[in-house]
Amino acid sequence: MASHTQRIFKRPAQQTQMQPIGDLMRTGQFREALTLMQPMVEADPMNAALLETVSDCYWRLGLNDRAISILKAIVET
C-alpha cells in the first residue's frame, strides 16, 4: 500500500514536501502535521488524498466530527 506521501503527490518534488508530514504522523504528532498541511490545503483545496490525510489526523486526535465532515466534503465533490 502506498504511503500518504506517495498517494498525495506523484512527482518526487511533491513527495519530498510531504515527507516531514509523514514522519510527524508516524510519531503521533498529528497537530504538527496538520499545521504543515494547512498551506497545502489552501493551495489545493480539491486534493482528495491530501484531505483524507487531514481527516486521518483529526480522527487520530479524537476530533471525529471534524474528520467525518472532511470525508463527507470529499465525497460530495
The helix-strand sequence is: HHHHH
Quaternary state of this entry equals: single chain
Mean pLDDT: 86
The total strand number stands at 0
The computed structural class is mainly alpha
Q: Based on the structure given, which CATH architecture is correct?
A: Alpha Horseshoe
Task: Give me a quick take on this structure.
This protein is mainly α. The protein has five helices and no strands. The longest helix is centred in the N-terminal third of the chain and has 15 residues, at 12-26.
Description:
- This protein is mainly α.
- The model has no long low-confidence stretch (mean pLDDT 86).
- The chain has helices at residues 4-8, 12-26, 30-43, 48-60, 64-76.
- Helix 4 (48-60) packs antiparallel against helix 5.
- The protein has one domain (13-76): Tetratricopeptide repeat domain (Serine Threonine Protein Phosphatase 5, Tetratricopeptide repeat, Alpha Horseshoe).
Chart the SSEs and their pairings.
Elements lengths: L3 H5 L3 H15 L3 H14 L4 H13 L3 H13 L1
Helix pairs in contact: 2-3, 3-4, 4-5
Features of the shown structure:
single chain, globular, 5 helices, 77 residues, mainly alpha, Serine Threonine Protein Phosphatase 5, Tetratricopeptide repeat
